[in-house]
Amino acid sequence: SNVTHIEMIVRGGEYQQLKHQIGYAHVLEHMLSFYTSKVYPNADTNKETLSKCGITGNAYTGHHVTGYWLLGLKKYTSDMLDLMLNTFIEPHIDISKFENEKEAVKNELDRIINSTWYSLNCQIMKTIYNKTNISETTEYEKKNVEKMTLDDLYAMHERFYKLSNML
């Protein structure tokens, strides 16, 4: 194949967060999906470069992990690796995107809260995951996201984005 898929998975989802940090991994996932670092600090420039090379990517967060992936032509493999690894080793949060991404996460959470199955899902989560962070409601997560700061994001990165937590 002439295509390369690179994926980085970090053991740092909702389950590992402290109660007052639930939601932080989701915002961090949004911010790091711009692949900004000390070497590549501008989110818009990174997005434009990836687009010009035909590289696509996305990120996701779950109860136990947060993941990031890039897909592009094999000739860009080293560029994709460089961009991704710099993001995780020496992150730089592009503050011009921070408030917009917090709003995007809150909008995603609102869609969950307003879904038909939300109430039942909350009851199931409280039953299955009793006494864990996963049993907290999405409203609780949204309140945490509303009050989080850039320092909170860097602290999350420092705590979870270590080689021992990455695949």
Distance between the termini: 23 Å
Major beta sheet, strand line-up? 1-3-2
Helical percent range? 40-55%
Shape: globular
Which structural category do the helix and sheet elements fall into? Answer: alpha+beta
Tally of strands: 3
Characterize the largest beta sheet: strand count, sense, and whether it forms a barrel. 3 strands, antiparallel
Spans with pLDDT under 50 lasting ≥5 residues?
Answer: none
Number of helices: 7
Overall pLDDT metric: 93
Radius of gyration: 17 Å
Oligomer category: single chain
The secondary-structure element order is: EHHEEHHHHH
Question: Strand share of the residues?
Answer: 5-15%
Please explain how this structure is put together.
- This protein is of the alpha+beta class.
- It has a three-stranded antiparallel β-sheet with strand order 1-3-2, with helices on one face.
- Strand 2 and strand 3 form a beta hairpin.
- It is globular, with a radius of gyration of 17 Å.
- Helix content is 50%, strand content 13%.
- The longest helix has 19 residues, at 95-113.
- It is built from seven helices and three strands.
- The protein has helices at residues 24-32, 43-52, 77-89, 95-113, 118-128, 138-147, 150-160; strands at 3-10, 56-61, 66-73.
